[in-house]
């Protein structure tokens, strides 16, 4: 468990990462100081130096807010942020520097989005629920994706805190959905450098590590754990509470109802082992010697025909 928590970067709850500034309020005189400057493209530059402490020798880049966008005056907007037509930004939102909100995207609830993120047209990030959504740097959220919304767990109690924490450099594609946790003591966690393709679903309380690739239509049930460098084929499904080990490959259309060991391939309705993920191991830089060692362990654990070899637990002890 310690190794897994380390690999997934599980630390304090996402709520602890929100700054006090996300709830800052401004006086009427401060709000009246907001300046709107028309530019040649019909955008509006929203400029207020007091929102962020800027060094005296720095030249902060302006913010661009389209006239049709609705931005709450208490939202915290970083430098160089672009907010397109018909976007909405809620009261408790914190947008990092150089974020881009494309037309018709909506950021709501207690939501923090890190520097350099792009939210494409029609996407919804956050929800007007207790708790928070925290998204790291340089993430892309695709067209009409729903990220940080209420979970689909009937055990969720309205009014309970719920959390989503996403790391850095993730590519979340069109129509994907990623839900907050179902209870205050847990959180949904996505690590770094993951590719979540179109129409994927990551349910409440999932823990996803780093550098995973989920092909179109992959569905992770609640409380699923996916370690690192896992690939899934299109329309793969993973049952609640299952655990997918690092470097595993889940074939297209597979239905996973049991834990998947590290380094293996699984396929089929009620997925079964289909050997080692040799191509994936080579792509990740495993040496021939390391691959041979993994192959011997796999044969010892899963292909042993000796009646005297004992059960799986006994063979694990021998390894």
TrEMBL record:
Protein keywords: Acyltransferase, Lipid A biosynthesis, Lipid biosynthesis, Lipid metabolism, Transferase
InterPro entries: Acetyltransf_C, Acetyltransf_C_sf, Hexapep, Lipid_A_LpxA, Trimer_LpxA-like_sf
GO MF annotation terms: acyl-[acyl-carrier-protein]-UDP-N-acetylglucosamine O-acyltransferase activity
Signal peptide region: none
GO cellular component terms given for this protein: membrane
Record bears the keyword Iron-sulfur: no
Domain of life: Eukaryota
Pfam families: Acetyltransf_11, Hexapep
GO biological process: lipid A biosynthetic process
Residues covered by the UDP N-acetylglucosamine O-acyltransferase C-terminal domain: 259-308
Name this protein carries in UniProt: UDP N-acetylglucosamine O-acyltransferase C-terminal domain-containing protein
